[in-house]
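Q: Structure for this?
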Amino acid sequence: MLIPAGDGLPSASQAAAANQGLDEVLGSLPETEVPSAALLDQLRGADPAEAIATLQTDDPAGFDLLCTVVAGAYFLNPEVRKAIGYPGQQAVPIVPEEPPDYEQDGLLASVIARGPIYRPTPMSS
Amino acid sequence: MVDVLIVGAGASGAVAAARLAQAGFSVVCLEQGDWPDYTRARAAFPDFELTSGRDWAWDPNVRGAAGDYPVDDSDSDITALMWNGVGGGTVVYAAHWQRNMPSDFRVRTLDGVADDWPLTYEDLEPFYVRVEKDWGVSGLAGDTAFPPGDGPPMPPVPLSKLGRAVARAHNRLGWHWWPGPNAIATRPYGRLHACLQRATCLWGCAEGAKATVDRTYWPVAVDRGVQLMTRARVKRLLMDPTGLVAGALYVDANGQDHELRAEITIVCANGIGTPRLLLLSADDRHPQGLANSSGLVGKRLMMHPFGTVVGLFDEDLDSWQGVWGQHIHSLEFYETDASRGFLRGAKWGLQPTGGPLSMTRSFPWGVENPIWGSDFPRKLRQRLGRSAMWGIIAEDLPDEANRVVLDPTRTDAFGIPAAKILYRLSDNSQQLVAFHQARARESLQAAGAYETVVAPFIRATGWHLLGTAMMGQDPARSVVDPWGRSHDVENLFIFDGSLWPTSSGMNPTATIAALALRNAEHLIEQRSSQRVAA
């Protein structure tokens, strides 16, 4: 219900977010295991759409936890990461010898040409 | 007995400790928290977005670490954020390195409200230059929003695709922008490694590229002989019979009390911790708290209302990468224009928006703009990598009703009264933020955003804790003199952001650090005439 399939992406259930992914999330966030289990017990057997809507209204913190766990598991799936083009927070070294692009194309020229925009310290100071 | 006791190992404490030790003072720093544990900085791991909010939480009430104390924020529009440990707020700051502008020091003279500072931009400028070299700052000299002069020692961070897009738009609009000044190393610099642009600055820099004082100043200070004691929480300052401060009573991690005697005491515990300690130090001779004959200790709390506007773009901007940090900044609307209906202004910093989990959060996207359900795949693709965000730091004017007091009921883990903050957003602040959000939307639209989102107001934005022990010339209207020395207790100093008479609309670390260096140098110069505890 939270993450359906579409636009080339699997649903959360197709991505096994409820199984292996959930275990991975709980491995990273063990403190969420007990409240997550209580939340799932609370939702079990209810109409999913109705239960989620009620949770969102009546228990925003519980809803946030559910979303974090489900989406967290979903985005840990390598197939999902590939599908959304997200490789993680990559190391991209800054190349210091490269001339800054704003010097190459004059991007800053108009800012400089405009001159100072600050109010100077009053002379009486 | 040591020459100087410093309470707090954040930005101002680190700068003061390193400089005083260099001048030959014996220095002990008592820090209630620990050194940061960078094994928890997991930028390179798939679960980074899951664990970062837990391990690098900004709110002490959420974090509940050994160095923290409760802050009752139930009567505050903004919650106070801080890091209680070696490095202080620099451990989790975004490293936006902003000098104040000349007008920030002359608010009363120029705009007819609040107060002037007892110093000018020109007084502080040499200390900005020096501290930027020691700190490790990147940026580009010549910013037209500041007087000419020396700039930071390292070249600025790359503009990135999103920075270039917005810069071109500002050129068309005729609006100011400049490559972002950041306390982020763009090449190896001293103890800092070069940034790898993982956009994880706010959650513990795993690379050691963000200039945090636990990595820069403290190793230098310790090498110079400073004794830095962690898990040492000051319960109260001690007074001698002559009315001088004689050091501190502190409690260690095992709950054992100790006295540390010092000739001079400098409090650097942030805009909440500092007034809390002064109020905790009340005695028969100082029933309102130490250094509080003016009645201003704890008052005039300023926390910078924060605005955020996000733009969605067709093109791929790689917007989970880069620094975080600011790619560019704009001070186009910083100066007062009374025709806008409010006074003062704000600084904008252009930032990335994060990885996929960040795309699902109610901030900055808004609860009225949910991602869940049938729209999830489309909205995720719209947001991830294709969004840019202006962060708006709004000046809030001082108001004595906004204040820090001792909590009448709650205590910390050692039975010491907790802090309570009372803070309300003023009409001026609300108008100011609304104006800047509207202009920031125009900026992003001009840069090609097909949709913009004004983030909902959230309380958890009180990164900057300022003004609660104001400096000034008049002992009746200020807590300390222009050099951070208490008007009431002449060997007691305050060097942190509590000093600020007005908040500016800038990220404050640059000015906190420069002021700490200036004040430390003045203390050194006055050493021979300084009365000290015996």
